[in-house]
Amino acid sequence: MLDAANPQPELHPHVRSSRTLNPLLTKIHFPGVLPVGISRNHRHSSPFFFLYKPHPNSGPICGRNSGRHHHPPPHIFAFSGQLRPPLENPSTGFCFSHQELSSHTNLSAKTHEKFPSNSECCYSIRRKVILKLVCGVVLAIKASNTEQNCKLGVCLDEIILVALVHPGLRNWHAKTGTGATSSKGGSKGKSKDPPFRLLNREDRKTYDFLVSNKRQVKSTKFLHRESFASLGVLDGVQALFNNIGWGQFLHNRAATYVEPTLEFLTTFNPEEEAQTVTFQILGEKRSLPHRVVNALMGAPVDNLYYQQDPWPGNFNEHYFWQQITNEPQYSSSSSKASSIIHPCLRLAHRVLTCTIFARSEVGQISKAELFFLWCMTRENGPRPDFASFFFTKCYNLTTMDKGDIFIGGLITLIASRPPLQLHLSTLPFEKASGPSSLDGNALRRMQLIRDSVVGPMWILDNQPYLILPHEYIESFEPTDPDQWIIPSDYPPPVDDEDDQFQPAQQFAEP
């Protein structure tokens, strides 16, 4: 405990003086608590942290279930990020409601008021941050310009830590001069400081490039199984992904968060020889083997085709393109995905472009994307390595000077699943804009299907082609080339068998 004769405690090595880091902190005095300092070495990357100790003249700190908490030694800062469900009687617990936060008092007017020992009080710091205190324990924080509450159940005998983590606080920092510099102020052309602390200063250039030209982080669209099933295409798309060992990948769903996405892309560093990747997330450096990344994504880990490997000798892009489009030649600069006739093949391609290839403009089909489709239609064909293709895409995002960023949902999956198991959804990060499901509405916006009086119509070259669901589509066999081209009037009359589609030019099978 603190000595009344010497109220200033010895700072922990990870904690620097509040007077040198943030002069504003020295002006904030909570009755019953004593400011100690600000930590920037905590595992949660936040604008800053306030550390408080009980004032030597204050009574014992109490709180709900405080006797069952593990209490760290004095002068060792700690943080509990476990969220607690709302309580009917907040006076006995740690959570609060939006209505309670609305009725708060101003900090400056309450600086010297004696803190009640068994009641609650809310304070507002410069009208931006609201702190909830019960019996001297900081319970929660909230940025007043947002609807989202950050409920932190903190109950420690010796140390109270307030983590100001909401992105809305960055504007407050810029205005008060205690944090990031606004791009409107300062030197011309200089971007805002990142909303996370960079362990490597060289990463700042990468961050500035990522946010240049008003690039935005937008939601990753994952396959919506119910919508695909209602169109009769789910089984066919699933069969295509099963052929490369990616069957479980189609079950992935995750939200996209702006700050963790930018932090990962800014700091990730793939180590090709070691088959590992290092990156920073929530302010801490992490490292994962490629095999682990593949496994948590539902992709195979053995007998893989890597992105840097040469194309297989039996992969002829022109011949395969002719088989699935009835067009004579493939061109990476002009061939369009809309030429793919079979709904299952084209939708499998769209799933790829919305996830691992993560691009907004999907008019053209790249050779790598065409190769994925070729692998999906082979028996015992190559199985693409998720990690090498994914990290190549991440690297390309840090070198491209335009185009929004759609890969954040996959980053959320990496962060939230074992071994990291970071609960990003419990932290008040900004969610990316845009839909997160490749559902019926998304397919309509992409002009892949169109409603009609007889049901959803499959669109080919901007014209209705087939009614979905369709019996032929539901019996799709991915490895049967005879099923890759579907005449629009299928099934055709027997007398017209000779009039079915034939390739304009034959390429020899390699």
UniProtKB/TrEMBL annotation:
Feature: compositional bias, Low complexity: 175-185
Annotated Pfam families: ATHILA
Residue ranges of the region described as Disordered: 175-197, 480-510
Domain named Arabidopsis retrotransposon Orf1 C-terminal: residues: 214-373
InterPro entries the record matches: ATHILA_Orf1_C
Protein's UniProt name: Arabidopsis retrotransposon Orf1 C-terminal domain-containing protein
Organism whose genome encodes this protein: Lactuca saligna (Willowleaf lettuce)
